[in-house]
Amino acid sequence: SETHGITFRIQITAKELLDTDVLLKLLFHLPVNYPSILPDISVNSDQLTRAQCMDLKDKLLEEAKKHLSEPMVHELILWVQQHLKYIIRQSTAVCSEKTTLSRGASTEDGIWMLFLHLDHMRAKAKYVKTVEKWALDLRLTGRLMFMGKIILIILQGDRSNIKEYLILQKTSKVDVDSSRKKCKEKMISVLCETKIQPQHARFQTFEVKDYSTMDELQKEFEAVGLVTLFSEFVPPLLK
């Protein structure tokens, strides 16, 4: 649209290390003032690991900076097809190197984001208070969002604190079952866990918010540059 730009998907094949065809699903969001501003890019492939997809996304954004102020999507697609095998080789080497580092030595992770989907909350008031306390204790910002039956959580902060939150979410008795007995969260989906990109804004606080329409919910994502995240994960939850 005139205010939100456009979003589109492209499926391409490229060669990986063993010269096997890899199907890549690329999602581009072009803001209104593209190409003066970089597009938001999402990369998915059933044949690559999440880490490899994220590394490929980072490399695509680096390449996009070289084409700033000129149409670039076609160039980026050609670049991926030509360089995928080298990116995978480099990503594998970096991943291997990182496994030799202790968790405490990882001081340059930057700010990360966690995107969760909850199936339901039976003890909503208690559950919400618990999530708010965890976010405060771990110095995480973001949103706990309700839209109809959809329950979403976006968190931003240090990666170690993001990991700690996820452990609490999965191991603590935060809800009640159908018999009103305390129970752990078993119906949670991690939709996305990624390092925040330069084009993404930061939530300054953690807030609990209700939305009456999908358009209202989408605007919350747009306000912090997360249109691609919304387009990729939220509409399928309505099906």
Automatic annotation (TrEMBL):
Keyword presence, Transmembrane? no
From the Swiss-Prot or TrEMBL record, state where the protein is found: Cytoplasm; Nucleus
Listed CDD domains: RWD_RWDD3, RWDD3_C
Top-rank taxon: Eukaryota
What's the main place this protein lives? Answer: cytoplasm
Which Pfam families does this one have? RWD (PF05773)
The record's section on Gene3D superfamilies has: Ubiquitin Conjugating Enzyme
One Gene Ontology term of the biological-process aspect is: positive regulation of hypoxia-inducible factor-1alpha signaling pathway
The answer to whether the entry has keyword Cytoplasm is yes
Keywords annotated in UniProt: Cytoplasm, Nucleus
Q: Where is the RWD domain?
A: 1-87
Any one annotated GO CC term: nucleus
Name of the protein in its database record = RWD domain-containing protein 3
> What is the originating organism of this protein?
Nothocercus julius
- Gene field: Rwdd3
